[in-house]
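Thread title: Can someone regenerate the structure for this chain?

I was given the following input by a collaborator and told the matching structure tokens would be attached. They weren't. Posting the sequence so someone can regenerate them.
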Amino acid sequence: MDTKTPEMWMKEKVYGYWLSQALYCAAELNLADIIFRDGPQTSSDLAKKTNTHERSLYRLLRYLASEEVFAEDETGAFILTPKANQLRSDISGSQHAMAVMSGSEHYLASSKMIDNVRTGKCAYELAHGQPIFEYLKDHPISARVFDKAMESIHGSESNQILAAYNFSEFITLADIGGGNGSMLLAILNQYPNLNGVLFDLSHVTSATAALKNNGERFKLVSGDFFESVTPNADAYLLRHIIHDWDDEKSVLILSNIKKVLSEHGKVLMIEAILPEGNTPHPGKMFDWIMMGIPGGIERTLAEYKTLFAKSGLHIQRVIPTSGLNSIIEATAL
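Best answer:
Regenerated them for you:
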């Protein structure tokens, strides 16, 4: 039971962005990596290694230590804690890239959310002058951070999806907008008779070429899903693609898949499905983020049914995973 008064709750939430910025600073300065590599460090040690102001750095560390992110020992040196360990860049499930991305480009976008609400124009585009995916195309360092941040969010999903869905009926699976290919590779590794096609923009597939480790079973195809998608697959996978876009663009993507879908082909969409009403759900926070960053939408099942119907598709079943997401399986009407 929450013992906080409404006033206490509100104050905590209103001030929350200061903690987010402190975590960003620690990640940007790679403090956890340095302490893991070199052992316990005083603020003076760390200031020299990060070219920062020693007293200001100490105040950052002291605040984070009060939140159990780092701890100051009896000698005045700072050590890693389980929470601080999440800011290392070299561990599975690392939140390092997410802290960097959220505290920089996304933080600037968040300052434009009031304009987003007033006008319907995407906050990220208002802050940075171009939509996020165009920005990432022009800023390859940010694109690499984005890919790592997405892995930190979605990395655990691969096992959840593989446990929930049987891909053995398919010969060729096309991962539409599959990014670095991690999901497709995980599926191919479990299904040795399955062929995979990773379809994404040319600057994405060129960066993904180094991951091509399944020989003839893994094919890279460059293209724009707003224009067309690769044909000759009997299943099309869309993991966290449709939630990036408004209804009009989502229908365009799904309609382009419908054009090349075989008679018995399937569309497999992986998204969180929002509950109706006031029911708490993490997806409702993500919907707020989707509005501000790519300009997309998290949807209820009823909204997805409408979206698919407009695209000439019919939802056959919804398979929940052990995590936040469900697999929506659809066929042609």
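Residues 140-154 form the longest helix (15 residues).
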